[in-house]
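Researcher: We're teaching a course module on how sequence relates to structure. For the next exercise, students receive a sequence and then see the predicted structure as tokens, so they can try to spot secondary structure elements on their own. Here is the exercise chain.
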Amino acid sequence: MSIISSVEELEAIYGQPGEASLVKVAQKITPEYRRFIEAAPFAALATSGPEGLDCSPRGDLAGFVRVHDSKTLMMPDRRGNNRVDSLRNIVRDPRAALLFLIPGHGNCIRVNGRAHLDTDPELLASFAVKEKPPRSVIVMKIDELYFQCARAIVRSKLWNPEHHVDKKSLPTPGQILASMTESRVGGEDYDQAWDARAQKTLW
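Model: And here is the predicted structure for the students to work with:
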């Protein structure tokens, strides 16, 4: 194995970034970046804590991440599996990052900053959907944000329906759970009940 062990070795292979890769970085939300954020129905949230790193999917109606001001984003924590891995991390280490994806669009937006959790009743109520408020809101102060070019999306053909993977070709959550618990949890009943259960608990 030939392991890269220094920044100097890395730069010798990759060289220096071009000007466009540097000047696209902003320390606040510009009008152009705001349009991307408000159009995005999906983001990946990365956090760090004593147990290690975590990256979790976050999705909702387009614009679910609110631009509070030029340096602040707010994201409701919608219902999930109650593991709260990301939230545990944020409470202990505020460093966080978001990657916004917009269906059909190649460019995505990367945001790095520091986050905290807010449970102010009025703030929670302002994020309510179908009269169901989140239990907390992730408030993120921005250090930097920038767009990521479309190469990864183009290479992966992510939005091309012709390259969508048939769900039947992969194991279901119920099958995974059954395999890991000797059928104590999961199974066909779990899979059959999931759609109806999820519709009742989206918010």
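Model: If you want an answer key for the exercise: The mean pLDDT is 96. The helical segments are 7-14, 19-23, 31-39, 85-92, 121-126, 151-156, 173-181, 188-200.
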